[in-house]
């Protein structure tokens, strides 16, 4: 089965006392030819900057790299306003925004900020309604109505239109979320920390089957994997995503070939982060691009 050329990026943690380094890493990624920057979204974390404010600031300091929340916390971000935020930032950044979106987690913390506390089934249904709301507000209709139990629109006026068509990439893990991804989303954002290759294979089949059942081409659903691990300098090979640059090249090429992963967003777990990011960008990424024929 054909695959799209892989893209590469960085996963940044929005530490409030680390803005200068976040800005420097974003500028480096932009100049070095990376494609994506994903920033986690946990509004209840007191040490973190607001993700959308941070993305706006970093987008203004870069020229070509695409940003996305990895992933936006739906229970604390109303989808109508989220749609407006994405469209606005996509215009300001000249089409460099995608929307990573999650159903929610850490419900005690969400409730502590006044958000809803949802069961698993409620969270999935709310996410599906949110996708419909967001897409309706990215349309060129004069007004839109969307019924829903969690989110609805009653004659809302869409606009402004995004600069390009942002993708909605879901942070999905369970069967219902994976089925929703295949049926209604533009992409899937798993994390290697909880999604080893065997899980990616099974989950990918679920997504493909759901897409086909909905009359969609499964290949239109992107697969962007958060890859966390250590790129060693001493030749030590400790296994999957834990070893020298060539180990990483081999692992990422296998994921691209066998699991159709077309985006790799790197998060170093050990060692000096800047040096890890340089090894990834300057040694791993070029070799994977060559090996993938991109």
TrEMBL record:
Q: Report if keyword Oxidoreductase is assigned.
A: yes
List the InterPro entries. Answer: F420-G6PD/mer, Luciferase-like_dom, Luciferase-like_sf
* GO MF annotation list: oxidoreductase activity
Give start and end of each Luciferase-like domain: 14-229
Write down a Pfam family by its short name: Bac_luciferase
Q: What is its EC number?
A: 1.-.-.-
Which keywords describe this protein according to UniProt?
Answer: Oxidoreductase
Keyword rRNA-binding assigned to the entry: answer is no
UniProt protein name: LLM class flavin-dependent oxidoreductase
Origin species, per record, is Nocardia implantans
């Amino acid at each position: 089965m054909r695959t799209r050329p892989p893209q590469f990026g960085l996963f940044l943690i929005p530490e409030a006392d680390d803005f200068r380094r976040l800005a420097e890493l974003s500028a480096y990624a932009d100049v070095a030819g990376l494609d994506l920057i994903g920033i986690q979204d946990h509004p209840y974390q007191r040490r973190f900057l607001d993700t959308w404010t941070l993305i706006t600031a970093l987008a203004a300091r870069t020229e070509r790299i695409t940003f996305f929340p990895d992933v936006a916390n739906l229970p604390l971000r109303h989808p109508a306003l989220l749609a407006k935020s994405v469209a606005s930032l996509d215009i300001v950044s000249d089409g460099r925004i995608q929307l990573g979106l999650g159903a929610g987690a850490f419900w005690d913390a969400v409730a502590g900020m006044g958000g809803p506390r949802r069961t698993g089934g409620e969270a999935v249904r709310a996410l599906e309604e949110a996708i419909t709301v967001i897409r309706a507000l990215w349309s060129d209709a004069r007004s839109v109505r969307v019924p829903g139990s969690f989110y609805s629109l009653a004659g809302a006026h869409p606009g402004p239109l995004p600069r390009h068509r942002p993708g909605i990439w879901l942070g999905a893990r369970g069967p219902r979320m994976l089925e929703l991804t295949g049926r209604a989303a533009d992409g899937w954002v798993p994390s290697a920390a909880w999604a080893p290759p065997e899980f990616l294979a099974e989950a990918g089949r679920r997504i493909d089957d759901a897409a086909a059942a909905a009359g969609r081409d499964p290949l239109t659903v992107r697969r962007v994997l958060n890859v966390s691990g250590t790129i060693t300098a001493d030749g030590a090979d400790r296994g999957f995503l834990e070893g020298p640059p060539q180990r990483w090249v081999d692992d990422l090429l296998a994921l691209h070939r066998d699991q159709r992963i077309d985006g790799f967003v790197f998060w170093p777990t050990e060692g000096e982060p800047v040096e890890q990011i340089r090894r990834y960008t300057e040694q791993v990424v070029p070799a994977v691009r060559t090996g993938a024929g991109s």
